[in-house]
Amino acid sequence: xxxxxxxxxxxxxxxxxxxxxxxxxxxxxxxxxxxxxxxxxxxxxxxxxxxxxxxxxxxxxxxxxxxxxxxxxxxxxxxxxxxxxxxxxxxxxxxxxxxxxxxxxxxxxxxxxxxxxxxxxxxxxxxxxxxxxxxxxxxxxxxxxxxxxxxxxxxxxxxxxxxxxxxxxxxxxxxxxxxxxxxxxxxxxxxxxxxxxxxxxxxxxxxxxxxxxxxxxxxxxxxxxxxxxxxxxxxxxxxxxxxxxxxxxxxxxxxxxxxxxxxxxxxxxxxxxxxxxxxxxxxxxxxxxxxxxxxxxxxxxxxxxxxxxxxxxxxxxxxxxxxxxxxxxxxxxxxxxxxxxxxxxxxxxxxxxxxxxxxxxxxxxxxxxxxxxxxxxxxxxxxxxxxxxxxxxxxxxxxxxxxxxxxxxxxxxxxxxxxxxxxxxxxxxxxxxxxxxxxxxxxxxxxxxxxxxxxxxxxxxxxxxxxxxxxxxxxxxxxxxxxxxxxxxxxxxxxxxxxxxxxxxxxxxxxxxxxxxxxxxxxxxxxxxxxxxxxxxxxxxxxxxxxxxxxxxxxxxxxxxxxxxxxxxxxxxxxxxxxxxxxxxxxxxxxxxxxxxxxxxxxxxxxxxxxxxxxxxxxxxxxxxxxxxxxxxxxxxxxxxxxxxxxxxxxxxxxxxxxxxxxxxxxxxxxxxxxxxxxxxxxxxxxxxxxxxxxxxxxxxxxxxxxxxxxxxxxxxxxxxxxxxxxxxxxxxxxxxxxxxxxxxxxxxxxxxxxxxxxxxxxxxxxxxxxxxxxxxxxxxxxxxxxxxxxxxxxxxx
Length: 798
Description:
Blueprint lengths: L7 H14 L21 H17 L5 H17 L3 H16 L5 E3 L6 H5 L29 E5 L2 H14 L4 E9 L2 H11 L4 H10 L26 H13 L3 E13 L10 E3 L6 E6 H6 L4 E7 H15 L14 H8 L12 H10 L4 H10 L2 H5 L3 H8 L13 H4 L9 H12 L3 H10 L6 H17 L4 H14 L6 H20 L1 H10 L8 H10 L4 E2 L11 E5 L2 E5 L10 H13 L5 H8 L3 H9 L10 H9 L22 H12 L12 H6 L5 H4 L7 E12 L8 E7 L2 E7 L1 H6 L1 H6 L2 E11 L2 E11 L10 E3 L1
Parallel strand pairs: 2-7, 3-6, 8-10, 11-16, 13-15
Antiparallel strand pairs: 1-2, 3-4, 4-7, 5-6, 9-10, 11-12, 11-14, 12-13, 14-15
Helix pairs in contact: 2-3, 2-4, 7-8, 7-9, 11-22, 11-23, 12-22, 14-22, 18-19, 18-21, 22-23, 23-24, 27-28
């Protein structure tokens, strides 16, 4: 200042220049795109017009119409103050595009709390009828954009919606958010092993030692299990491997693509954030992840691919093609057959309720109406389990414990869940009723105790909560119980709106499975991999329910599985997509060629469909050439003969010197060539020997008394070790009659670890446990059974 005192204007301009040069990431210049409006309309006016139209369609003059209009007026007032009308219009436009292009779409998450979203057709859950809390979705104090997730069918239909957004906002105006991929578990073991020059087979063995469970035992160090992989723990390279593998966990590896998050901007997005072309053609990726984008106010819309949405849409198409009609919006909500299947845990393939834990809980909860299914979807979650809410709810549901409330004022909030808080919305309501919080303050409480928790903020909010309850006259044990319920559950509580959206899909899938099984199972098989179960298990489940599955046939099969009408009713024909090693182009060539003229011989098929020799041999081995005459082995013999070429006639079929396949060989050929078998289950081939040893089938297990010593055996189709299960392992063993559930305690798991993790077939000796019609076996010993050729891969995860 003294140095330039003779230049006061220069000093003043320096200060002004410094202010102009100051830059933070909040000054990126990001603008949300403007929605194209009808002439003379404002965004809020147009949104109000669309929602009024939606209210008339959704509610008409029914009993909820007046309440719905009041709620929508409240929501629109807040949307207007926050200047968010354009955002809702843009999401509505994406939904309308999907509807007009026959793409099934449903909004989920906290957006289902909004009556505006329901009126616009974005969500399918009625928040007014279900008394959901709007502020869980949007509040004035939150200072961030709302988050609307759209579930779409996986694959081409979802990609069509994504490309619509690119067309609407330009290649430089929209992009997929990035996802930071970290070094984890087995992949890290393989990469560290490769960097150290370990042989491939050793790398694979080391990777198998790494637990991919949700539960991580602090004492279960990788170094303890190195000898199981044939490694010397004292060898320098192996010790280096163990050290590096431990240190590399959770470090960033590369940028990937988020499963569905898209950001959009007015103008060029690359003025704000660096972009890069995705590996998938027609896509652009933002080089920041979703949290970075949210922190900088860049708006994201999630277009999520959901396998069950594809199954539902494909099922509806197959139902129409076979002369039926199903309207998902008009399904009866009280179908007895659907609820009977849920109560019996007959739910393989049903969205959200097909897991082992869900199937073990369904007969105890016994859903009887839609809200019971909402609870069922939410109850097998970390929040209710960690918060010890599951067992009290089930005891009250079964009439073994009286329904009580921490305070009489909470009865309206907790009545539907029998006095047990299960949902985030209930926690917000509890704070509003007992402490006088506003809806905005209640949402701030939830966020304070959420994943990004701050000790200081939590202490401030808890003090405010206690003060509010004291003003309402709530003290002592009741106050402590309420504080504990709210603060302990806020971290993991599941949103009721989210559970309701999922319950709609669960009910729809259960309805189609019960009433249109051929269409449902065909669609399910066409959309694999998804869900818990391998296609081999889905096929056997369908057969146990009396659905006839027809084999792959070069004269009848399409690329996808199809529904065929036979004298016995509707059946499922397996598609050529299940032939391992068969190119899709070759499969479609088979279909096109036979439409011109039937195949005259195996060589005629190979020539006209341009099949490779290994493709032809696989078709022969799985029996797909049966309509051309001959047995599997005979057709393998013929397929091995070189074709004569286009100028010569096919040689006469020579008798095969090979003996025909045995049952075991056919089973091995089926699994090797298609991953499924339509013949006998592998366990059926062992049944006589197992019965001689006193081993029960899954069906027979249901009849044993609680505490009885039993033996069960089966193909391991699911292994789980959830983070909330304190080290217990849960196995699902499939045989020809169904599925048996096995519980393994931590000491038994430690004793039989390699067998339980690696053996595809298990024989388990244990003690039967019967509870409310749910039967399981607590393992005492486990040993492997010899595999019969190929086996079904198990679904192993946390």
